[in-house]
Amino acid sequence: MSKAANRAYSSTAPGLGSDHDVDQTDPVDRRWLAGVAQLRRGRDIADADWDRIYPAKCIELSSLHWSPAAVARRAAELLSRGTETRVLDVGAGVGKFCTIAALTTPGLFVGVERCGELVDIARATAARAQASRTRFIHANADDIDWANFNGFYFFNPFAQILWPDLRMIGPGISQPDEYRRLLSYTRGSLMASRPGTRVVTYFGFGGEMPSCFRLTLKQPYGNDFVECWERE
Questions:
Q1: CB count, 10 Å around CB of 79?
Q2: For 84-95, what is each residue's pLDDT tens digit?
């Protein structure tokens, strides 16, 4: 973890620091861990209660860039195949989907994220929640072999590349060629996936699903829909 990220945890989310430099009885940390326990018991958690563990700048971005907790839970249910579940979250951000999914359903949840500082936050959050069935990889989406997964989660993963939010870490300039390349890679990888592969989207992924996928559910949430697709 970078020194900058560690300072951010220490000042805004005490539970994410090391045992040597934080007060483990901090009330913010206790409230968050109580919410984690609720999730493990199958209860809902409000986004404000979950997000309190993040650095302040990440809390500010949550409503636009991180999956709502209710969407994360529903997506995990739809993608679940029991212990055989292997899900890739493309553009994982602070790892909210993967961590909540691992707390509420069986299987392995892997997030790939191109911003190293967000990967640090995702790993620290999952460790604090003792969500051991998560992995977070600092890489581009096309650095990962998608053939290793039987499920995919997309929350508009490439929007930052085409329409950068200047509050986010990154180049801050639109990269339309890169955006189109990643959309092409995504479609090609999905077309090459095994029959039965499931995909859940919230605000889509930026392109059209390949015709070999069948829409099995479309459920409204907020200003968009949770959609579940299955490879025929």
A1: 26
A2: 999 999 999 999
Domain total in the chain? 1
56 in any annotated domain: no
Residue that is written with structure tokens 């949430």 in the block:
221
pTM across the whole model = 0.88
The phi and psi torsions of 143 (rounded to 5 degrees) equal -85, -10
The reply to whether 43 falls in a domain is no
CB proximity list for 111: less than 8 A, separation 6 or greater:
88, 89, 92, 93, 95, 97, 98, 119, 122, 134, 135, 136, 137
The enclosing domain of 109 has a CATH number of: 3.40.50.150
Report yes or no: 85 and 151 within 8 Å, Cβ to Cβ.
yes
Which residues span the domain enclosing 186? 67-231
Q: Report yes or no on 31 lying in a domain.
A: no
